[in-house]
Amino acid sequence: MDQNTTEWLQARAGKITASRMCDVMAFGKRDGKPLKSRQDYIGDIVAELLTGEPKEQVKARPLDWGHDVEAAARVAYEAETGEVVQQVGFLTHSLLPYIGCSPDGLIGGDGQMQIKCPNNPAVHIATLRDGMPEEHIAQVQGEMFVTGRAWSDFVSFDPRMPEHLRLYRQRIKRDEAYIEQLAAACESLWAEVQTYITYLNEKAA
Question: Any idea what the CATH number is for the domain that residue 42 is in?
Fold first, then answer.
């Protein structure tokens, strides 16, 4: 299926997705307690499971920009690396079907990619200087957790920049220690989702 279609949105509904792994991992640094974003995400999943409908997607100019430019980023990546990128829809974990992801492409037998096309060129410039922003670690490692692949090329692309600065790519290797923490956080979140649904059903009985 193509990403961002009705079919794709339906496939993701009621599942933990890599794009929200930052919320799955949202615990206080001092006390380790769940933060509001994690609790809100639990509510989102419960609502999708009970209604069978995906959460309404936010419509915003930055998101539209990213979707429009992504294809050009993929072409630029293929031209620079010589790799052939296989586009995919929504993939689920082989043993934990309630967890899934939508990588922006699979590469060979061991790789994949995640493309970011920030609407604000300053974000792209900061990535050129400092590398992949920390905020994307959970998503990129989460996608490798789902697919089982060994590496992911993080790509930032801005066609408005001078040609030699348009494409940034960084090879991110699979981090087993981080993925172990991610898996535990996903399992505990899913258990909370089930407890929440049981509570609502019992209260209504």
Answer: 3.90.320.10
